[in-house]
User: Fold this.
Amino acid sequence: MVSIPSRHKSLALLGGVLLAQVLMLAVQVKRDSRGRLIRVWTITAVTPFEKGGAWGFDKVRGVWGHYFALQGTSRQNEELRAENDSLKLTISQLESKAAEADRLAVLLDFRQSHEKIPMVMARVIGASAGTASHTVEIDRGERDGIRRNMAVITPDGAVGKIIEVYRDNAQVLLLSDKDGGAGAMLVGSRIQSPVKGTGEPMLSMSYVAAEENVNSGEKIVTSGMDKIFPRDVPIGTVLDVKQGTPFKQIRVKPAAKLDRLEEVIVLLTQEPVAFTSEPEAQSTQPTAGSATPATSNAVPLPAAVKP
Amino acid sequence: MNDTFELRGGETHIEVHKFFPGAVVGMAVLSLVLQRILPVYLPRLEILDLPLLVTIYFGLSRRNPSTGLLLGMVMGLMQDSLSGPTVPIGEYGIAKTVIGYLASSIGSRLDTEHPLARFALVAAFFVVHQSILVLVRRVLLAQPEPWFNMHLALAALVNAVLGVALFALLDRFRRSS
Assistant:
């Protein structure tokens, strides 16, 4: 008998022989610009597994990196928090400097628009120690020509007057102090009445007769009658009016930001001041009562000035 | 030595033929040589595929798939080698390996001694052989190749006719059982 290989054995042999020849074909043949065919086939066959492997490795690395390899994360978090705090502080400082630059620009513009009027720009370096008085301390004094009862203003409006003068600094009594005040008049009706401080943020106009017509939002400027402030320096805006006997009770919102003073102008003379609204327009934080068209004309100060 | 075996429970007896020593090798080499020489003198004979006919014949006669596919592989690889550098080694090898396997498998189930059976088988194997060649060229080598045309049909016919004659000639190299 002739021994015959099993069917499976011959099939396996057929497959092996064919595979060997296919591989041999691949070794010989070159595809255009893609190298030998076996390389093309091999790459084509292996690429899906490579992609799968790369995907798996990425996942494993991602899981490891996000959930297990976190030793340095806490320390890095603390460092980042510290850096964040430092950056916040830096930003705050820069914002403060930018705001200061804006304010100084307004002051400088006001100063340049009134070159012929002697004035001193001063920085507020201190405030009153108690809540009972509304005063601030400025960094200019006698050496700069500052004397008592000189008017202190900002481009927004009247601030107060000098009450104490030292060699290199001075104290300013604000309009909002209980003892503060200025001669004032309503822009529309030209009714004159002093504006006094109340010890609170708002001012008071006390001596307007009950029969006079005063409306909320009306502008109030200096009258010049106090011989401290020139005329037509903005003081504020009528906030509300209460009927009284014999005088109305008028609350006034200050034109100048009395609670946020940082730089002020001390008028060294009582020469006429052309108090235009231009500087107010350039102010970074304008107020409702700061724009006063009626004050745009230069008004001569009273001749008699009480030192 | 008993050259026959019982295939289907004693109902059918199909002989496994033995040949004189060197007959298979001699015929294989001769077919390859003639395949190269004949077209030089008679270009029309280019449509003949003598190695294929030899592979079919010995596959059908030996009726051993392993032997048949190995013979087809050797014939095909030699034909590839002799076909010049434009034909990659393995192209004919693959086709003739499959033909050797199929011929041996079919030969172990059918009586392939009748001329008509041989004619049909050779024509069919030629078509299969050509189909495998085209498949290899198109799929593996990315070479455009028509699946079949009239020239190939004529070649199948010619080779089938020649196969019947050649097989009868080769039968003379069998050892009597």
Helices of chain A lie at 7-28, 37-68, 73-113, 278-282. Chain A touches chain B through 21 residues (CB under 8 Å). The longest strand of chain A covers residues 119-127. The radius of gyration of chain A is 42 Å.
